[in-house]
Design a protein that fits this description.
This protein is mostly helical and 184 residues long. The protein folds into two domains: 51 residues, Arc Repressor Mutant, subunit A (Orthogonal Bundle); 113 residues, no CATH class. It is 70% helix and 0% strand. It contains ten helices and no strands. The termini are far apart.
Length: 184
């Protein structure tokens, strides 16, 4: 008789994360996960009292994965534009994770400031020197630009917009120039 396959919490979390990446959070349930793991639902329920706990862990994994997406950006004068474009690239390449993080109820009812403080503070902190603006306005520019970039990303993910990357890059660059000049 072959040895019993051991399904660890780490194995479950990783399989759940990959399932969400492919099929979305709405398809994360014990039956689908067991199929992915090629096991029964018993190992899942023996390690997780409920799926809500596992979904919360997957959400946190998605946040870390999203943050890591931006770690290799070159911090030159175009850091803000590059960050915006990387955000759009993330939406296009990791559509299900983008939907989970930015098109779900995660920030329902929260003021915009709560969302912005959860974003890339490193980019906001670099804005004063990059755009030659004072610090209080850097956060406002980040908010304006994020809303614009998020709108583009959400429309692309929802198949409401078809646009070439070169056009997106020009749009983001031009808006950043206009906003940062306006605040001077």
């Amino acid at each position: 008789m072959p040895p019993e396959k051991r399904v660890t919490e780490e194995t479950i979390r990783e399989a759940a994360f990959q399932l969400v990446r492919k099929e979305g959070i709405e398809n994360l349930n014990a039956r689908n996960l067991a199929k992915e793991l090629n096991c029964s639902t018993q190992p899942i329920y023996s390690r997780y009292a409920n799926m809500a706990d596992l979904k919360q862990e997957v959400y946190q994994m998605a946040e870390r994965y999203h943050s890591a997406w931006f770690e290799n950006l070159d911090p030159d004068d175009d850091i803000f534009v590059k960050t915006g474009l990387a955000y759009i690239d993330f939406a296009l390449k990791e559509t299900q994770l983008f939907r989970l993080l930015f098109m779900s109820n995660s920030f329902a009812g929260q003021p915009i400031g709560a969302f912005v403080t959860g974003c890339d503070e490193d980019v906001v902190n670099r804005l004063p020197s990059v755009a030659r603006i004072d610090s209080p306005n850097a956060s406002a520019i980040f908010t304006d630009m994020w809303l614009y970039v998020h709108g583009i990303a959400a429309m692309l993910v929802s198949n409401q917009l078809r646009i070439e990357r070169s056009e997106i890059e020009a749009m983001v660059t031009n808006l950043f120039k206009r906003i940062s000049q306006q605040d001077q």
